[in-house]
Structures are given as C-alpha cells and as structure tokens.
Design goal:
Helices cover 28% and strands 32% of the residues. Strands 3-2-4-5-6 form a 5-stranded parallel beta sheet. Helix 1 crosses helix 2. It is globular and about 55 Å long. 34% of the residues are buried. The mean pLDDT is 93.
C-alpha cells in the first residue's frame, strides 16, 4: 500500500518568514502602497498566509490592509468526488470588494483549478478593479492558464510528489516539505 513519506524540506520557519516578507514588499511596490488593497486568503492554509502578509505590509507601510477569508468549496470542479456532503465554511470579506485591488493568497499553486474556483467565488461577490495572486509555492503542472503575480518559491516537482505546507496556525509544525508516495 503506498504511503506518503517526507523527501525534502524546502523551507523551515525562517525561510517561510523571509519569503512572505519579500512577497509583502513586492505587493506594496507593485500597487504603489496599500490604497484600496484587500488581502483574501483561500481556506485553509491561504488564510494564515494572508494574515502574515497583511501584518508584514502593516509593518512596511504603517497601515494594515483588510484581510478576507474565501471558502471555495461549492465552486470546485471536483466537488462530486470530494464528499457526498461537503463541509462549507463561511466566506468573510471585511469590505465590499467592488473597485478594490484583491490579492488572492494560497499556499501551493499546482493545476490552477483551486484558483479558478476562487476567481469564480470572488466575482460572485463583487467586481474588483484587479485580482492578483500570491502563493508560497509554485510547483508547476498547470492545467489552466493561471500564473501567480507573487511567488515565495518555484519548485519543480513530479506528479508523484506532494508539496505539504505546514503552518503553526493549522498544523503542529512550521515548514514546507516535498512528500513522495512510496510502497510499503
């Protein structure tokens, strides 16, 4: 029976901190400040990453942008394969997103399908001026024409590997690892 085993540690807690600090600076630079900026994290691990980015931007600019939480469960194209009765969590946007610059945040960018679902969900809630994408890890293997504006680390992977982001807010560790399926 195949099991997942840790293969390589890509980032430790300090590496994650540095990557998110750099992404935060890039967001401020690209947007020439934080005016009309809203950071929106995709559940689950995109949310604590979004909070960290907003906090870092607050330290840089002296003003912290609002942070929203986006649940994409009902927008997924694989919903029927996930569960007979999926668990839907609330989406919480602190402001009307119409006319705002949204920075959508997720932990890992892989096929692009999660981001497509998130874009659909956001558009249902308003008409942002622009939507930008920030991810901690971009592992390639896109199935849709989606790319991130801000990337912590590009990591080429095989389809047999899994990139696991572990954060203290959701897990008991603070690291990014590549895991691989192995027969036991």
């Amino acid at each position: 029976m195949p099991v997942l085993t840790d293969k390589t540690v890509l980032m430790d807690s300090e590496g994650i901190r540095r990557a998110l600090t750099r992404i935060s600076h890039e967001i401020v630079e690209k947007n020439k400040g934080v005016e009309n900026l809203v950071i929106v994290g995709i559940r689950t691990r995109g949310v604590p990453i979004a909070e960290r980015i907003a906090a870092a931007i607050g330290r840089i600019e002296g003003k912290r942008p609002p942070v929203g939480v986006l649940d994409i469960t009902l927008y997924r194209d694989d919903l029927s394969t996930l569960s007979y009765q999926p668990i839907v969590h609330p989406t919480q946007l602190p402001v009307d997103i119409t006319g705002k610059t949204i920075v959508l945040v997720d932990d890992v960018l892989y096929t692009g399908r999660t981001i497509r679902a998130a874009l659909d969900a956001l558009i249902d809630m308003g008409r942002p001026k622009t939507i930008q994408l920030a991810v901690l890890i971009d592992r390639g293997h896109r199935e849709l024409p989606i790319r991130a504006d801000f990337v912590g680390k590009n990591v080429p992977t095989s389809s047999k590997e899994v990139v696991s982001v572990q954060l203290s807010a959701t897990d008991k560790a603070e690291k990014v690892v590549i895991r691989e399926f192995r027969d036991e």
